[in-house]
Design a protein that fits this description.
The chain has 680 residues and is mainly beta. The protein has seven helices and 47 strands. Strand 36 and strand 37 (471-477) form a beta hairpin.
Length: 680
């Protein structure tokens, strides 16, 4: 602020070229000394010298003469004097000629002395702009216009629409950056740098966004050279490292008998295979003969899934398929099952009993709907297929993508199969008030008229059993945004199947929608029954998709069935983990908590975590109320991957109840939490 801070300024001798001089002389012009009080001042001699001021120096209209005794001033932009003082008001303190000699400038050091009169005298601005009177010579540097280089001023470069580079004073070699294409990789380089990279230089291109470099684009085995954006618009796969289509580098399916590999046409010929350029994936394996059904057989239950909406067998002959066997080593407990999707009493798409004249579900042709098995999918065994309602008298253009998931014998999810249907409206009209259900005609007893069952509304579960006490059932699985549960019911087959040897569409729709008289929750006599669970209503616009999921569940008794049904919902909602998330060999960059495995779990689970560098780490488990349950680790840990086992006990050594728990890691710059599910 004015009056509080010392203001320091310098008098500079400035030349266009370097000079040597031994004497400097100047003065101060008129200014108000009440606004600027000069407290200290002095010459800037490079060595020793003599200062000769006038009597009132450094006041207004006073002057000073400076003479060198030994070391000369030498340069073209040097301080010769300095002032320090306090500012009390706005002022302009001008440099001026010496009041006694009428001269301001310099005198050389050799005889005869070369006189250098000042061409311009500046002024120091106090709380206002000063006067800088030394004109700067125009600066010339490289100007780049579309890769072409010229040496100009910045003003001339702007007029040309170019980019001015003050650090480059020459155009030889050309320093201007342009696009360098090394196959499809784009970088901005000079022409020489691009040559060193063995690339193609485009001086008239100045941006890599979007990438202008062409490279190989593969579309169904056809090779073309286009940019990444053009390849994406064509629906192709772009390979930035390839720049030549001869020979064709595009990978496609090569069938070596029933073995599928992705390779080039030349590579396939070397393998004595048959090349199919229109196919670009080996999952499902297109080299295998197409199949219509497959068994889930990795868990405690065996269930046949098909590509035509029917569950258990391909038809009523029961010669193709295994039905539903529970537990492993047991007998088949299913006559037939199916996905039911209904719009009205006159339209329900399904495929179950042979006597039903309408078999709406038909294998999809585009995409190919045949069954394929993914051993590395969502579960331990994924089975996929696709079908449509093309078999209906009046199809609604329904497309169904069917996925089913089964889990291994050593997992907590071994006693059920999850079936998820993606329903898509491929028609031009909106479909309103659709209901979807999973129908299962279980037959546990021999004869099949000695079954009974009921409904567990809390678990959205319809179940059946017989004198063996083995229980089987079907339940609705729900995730956020799914349609509500519509009906959970048994179907008395004597009333609804036996008269026609299939269920009429009007009755199917009644059960799907839980219409009057179509909700059967308990039966008090041994007979022949089926189970149905459904969800809806839902509306689908053209091209709109909705997910509907069910679980076919088994238990050796009713208590087991009641335990397994909620596990299926937990798995559907939260996923299943039984493989640690490790990438061996990769450097550990951060301290982090990995997913425990398995999850959900029963007896124990393994907790894995990474430590990036030796540090203090604490791992605790707490319940949903925030209460500490167990401290698994506390103290210094070396860098690396670590694993601990939780035995489902608290710090007091007692087993904890089933439910949701939270695993927390706190370490150096890390605080992470994961959810775990303990089943009892």
């Amino acid at each position: 602020a004015a009056g509080d801070t010392v203001s320091v300024w310098y008098v500079l001798a400035a030349w266009h070229e370097s000079k040597e001089w031994c004497e400097t002389e100047f003065g101060l012009g008129e200014f108000d000394s009440q606004n600027y009080y000069i407290s200290e001042y002095g010459p800037c001699f490079p060595g020793n010298g003599i200062e000769t001021p006038t009597a009132g120096w450094p006041g207004p209209n006073e002057g000073v003469t400076l003479n060198i005794l030994d070391t000369w001033w030498s340069g073209n932009y040097l301080p010769v004097y300095w002032f320090a003082g306090y500012v009390y008001g706005e002022e302009l303190v001008p440099l001026d000629i010496h009041p006694l000699t009428g001269f301001a400038g310099t005198q050389g050091c050799t005889y005869p002395a070369q006189i250098g009169a000042a061409e311009c005298l500046g002024a120091m601005g106090l709380l206002r702009d000063g006067i800088y009177c030394c004109p700067q010579p125009p600066e010339y540097a490289a100007c780049c216009v579309d890769g072409a280089c010229s040496v100009t001023t910045i003003e001339a470069c702007d007029a040309l629409g170019g980019t001015w580079y003050p650090q480059w004073l020459s155009c030889d070699p050309n320093p201007c950056p342009g696009v360098c294409c090394v196959a499809g990789a784009c970088s901005l380089t000079t022409t020489d740098e691009c040559g060193d990279l063995t690339g193609v230089w485009h001086g008239d291109w100045d941006s890599c966004d979007p990438n202008p470099c062409p490279a190989v684009c593969c579309i169904d085995g056809v090779c073309m050279l286009v940019t990444a954006s053009d390849c994406d618009a064509l629906g192709g796969d772009w390979y930035s490292d390839w720049s030549d289509c001869d020979p064709n580098p595009c990978p496609a399916v090569c069938c070596i008998e029933e073995a599928c590999v992705l390779t080039t046409q030349v590579g396939c010929a070397d393998l004595d295979g048959i090349w199919y350029p229109a196919w670009d994936v080996c999952a499902p394996n297109p080299c295998l003969a197409p199949i219509d059904w497959a068994d889930h057989d990795v868990g405690e239950c065996i269930l046949t899934m098909t590509d035509q909406g029917i569950i258990g067998f391909m038809d009523g002959n029961q010669t193709v398929g295994s039905g539903f066997i529970y537990p492993q080593g047991g007998i088949n407990l299913l006559w037939v099952g199916s996905l039911w999707v209904g719009e009205s009493e006159t339209y329900v798409a399904n495929r179950d009993y042979d006597a039903d004249p309408a078999r709406e579900w038909t294998i999809s042709t585009d995409p190919d709907g045949h069954v394929w098995i993914d051993e590395n999918g969502t579960s331990h065994q994924d089975i996929h297929s696709c079908y449509t309602d093309a078999g209906a008298v009046t199809p609604r253009d329904l497309f169904v993508d069917q996925e089913s998931w089964a889990y291994a014998l050593n997992s907590v999810a071994r006693d059920f199969v999850i079936v998820r249907y993606t329903l898509r409206n491929d028609g031009a009209s909106t479909l309103n008030d659709l209901y979807a259900g999973c129908f299962m005609d279980f037959d546990l007893s021999t004869p099949y008229t000695f079954d009974w069952g009921g409904v567990d509304a809390d678990r959205d579960l319809a179940y059946m059993t017989d004198s063996s006490n083995v229980h089987v059932g079907v339940r609705v699985l729900q995730a956020p945004g799914d349609p509500p549960v519509a009906n959970v019911t048994l179907i008395p087959n004597v009333d609804y199947v036996w008269p026609n040897r299939y269920v009429l569409d009007a009755d199917k729709y009644g059960f799907l929608t839980a219409g009057p008289g179509y909700v059967v929750t308990n039966v008090d006599s041994l007979s022949d029954y089926s189970a149905l669970v459904s969800a809806g209503p839902l509306t689908r616009m053209p091209d709109e998709e909705r997910l509907i999921a069910f679980a076919i569940v088994g238990g050796r008794d009713f208590a087991e069935l009641q335990l397994h049904a909620p596990v299926a919902q937990l798995i559907y909602t939260n996923g299943f983990t039984d493989v640690p998330e490790e990438q061996a060999g990769e450097p550990i960059r951060i301290t982090c908590l990995r997913a425990n495995a398995p999850n959900p779990f029963t007896g124990e689970t393994v907790v894995r975590f990474d430590v990036s560098q030796p540090s203090e780490v604490r791992i605790v488990i707490f319940d949903p109320m925030g209460r500490l349950v167990r401290t698994l680790a506390r103290g210094r840990h070396e860098s690396g991957r670590h694993a601990l086992t939780w035995d489902c006990r608290g710090d007091d050594g007692r087993p904890v109840p089933g439910g949701v728990y939270f695993l927390r890691l706190r370490g150096q710059q890390t605080d992470e939490c994961r959810r775990m599910i303990l089943l009892r």
